[in-house]
Design brief:
This protein has 327 residues and is of the alpha/beta class. It contains 11 helices and 8 strands. The strands form 2 sheets. It has a 6-stranded parallel beta sheet with strand order 3-2-1-5-4-6, sandwiched between helices. It has a two-stranded antiparallel sheet with strand order 7-8. Helix 4 links the parallel strand 1 and strand 2. Helix 4 packs across helix 5, helix 4 packs parallel to helix 8 and helix 4 packs across helix 11. The longest helix is centred in the N-terminal third of the chain and has 44 residues. The N and C termini lie far apart (63 Å). The C terminus is likely disordered.
Length: 327
């Protein structure tokens, strides 16, 4: 019976030659970086909670000021002020509606003529619940930024299954997003365009200097790549598709690796589509904390615009995310 069991185990191993990869053991340096990142995330969460509380206090203060202002007016004055406020609110709503209509028009046109950019979500089984949540937030930001572009890209979500799909569907208005949502892989979604697929990975030896409108650029949807170094490059090589990396090294030096978050990669691509200037795109998107000291002196003015500070980047994200539920 033991021999039969061994034979069965052998057959199972043969039928499944590539079991789920095991995470690499982190070096001491990687552990320090991970701890630093965890502290940064904790500080960011604390700051977010403080900002939320401050926002609540400001709203309560404005409400009381409004009530006090009304209390000191006559009935006619009160009615005129209320009508005036309603008029301003109506104008804002009409402006938002107009902007929303223009955004829908741009994103619809992008389905026909825009640059195809894929976010590969087939790594969700390698991430924790909080990491998936983080990636979902990045995707939400990507969609918001893309919608504000004069000439947006056409975004794809492929391999969207399991908890990843569940969390995305919980986003307000997600079902109305003008974006391709595919349960299948990008290989299946672009089965007739395999030669046009280009996986963007920092491990590639090919540098991407120009965007080809006929190509489909793929960004790996993976949080905490320290545990899975080289996984996107390996996947692309096994599938026999092209790879490329952003020309970051030609314009700036970074503290550690050139691995960026999903939303940073997408926004860099969108900035380059708009400006045709990699340097401007990098310095406007990549936070200063990721750059070496030698590059901080270059952060003066690029095309008349000052480089974004980290707090400005955070504010942009907050504004974009607040807009989404109204789309």
């Amino acid at each position: 019976m033991e021999a039969a069991q061994n034979q069965q185990n052998s057959q199972e191993n043969t039928s499944n030659p590539n079991p789920n990869p095991q995470p690499q053991t982190l070096s001491k340096n990687a552990q320090k970086k991970l701890l630093k990142q965890q502290k940064f995330e904790a500080k960011k969460a604390e700051k977010k909670a403080l900002m939320k509380e401050q926002k609540r206090r400001d709203a309560e203060k404005k409400r009381k000021e409004w009530e006090e202002k009304l209390a000191g007016l006559t009935e006619d004055e009160r009615q005129k002020l209320i009508d005036s406020r309603k008029g301003l609110r109506r104008e804002r709503m009409e402006k938002r509606s107009e902007e929303r209509g223009q955004k829908i028009q741009r994103l619809t046109q992008a389905k026909e003529t825009g640059q195809n950019i894929v976010i590969d979500l087939e790594f969700s089984h390698l991430m924790t619940h909080s990491e998936i949540h983080s990636l979902v937030q990045q995707i939400m930001y990507c969609y918001a930024v893309n919608g504000r572009c004069t000439f947006p890209a056409h975004l794809w979500l492929t391999g969207c299954q399991g908890e990843m799909e569940t969390q995305l569907q919980r986003l307000p208005g997600f079902e109305k997003w003008i974006i391709e949502k595919e349960n299948q892989s990008y290989n299946q979604a672009f089965a007739d365009q395999k030669d046009n697929l280009v996986y963007l990975t920092a491990d590639s030896e090919t540098v991407l200097y120009e965007l080809d409108p006929t190509k489909v650029y793929i960004v790996g949807g993976l949080v905490d790549r320290n545990r899975w170094k080289g996984i996107t490059m390996k996947k692309a090589e096994e599938q026999g598709i092209h790879t490329a990396k952003l020309p970051i090294g030609s314009y700036m030096k970074m503290y550690s690796s050139q691995v960026l978050t999903v939303n940073q990669v997408i926004e860099i691509l969108l900035k380059f589509m708009e400006t045709k200037d990699w340097k401007a795109a990098f310095f406007q998107v990549i936070p200063q904390r990721k750059r070496s000291e030698a590059d901080l002196g270059n952060c003066q003015e690029i095309d008349g615009e000052e480089c974004n500070e980290e707090n400005e980047e955070s504010e942009r994200k907050k504004k974009c995310i607040e807009v989404l539920p109204h789309d």
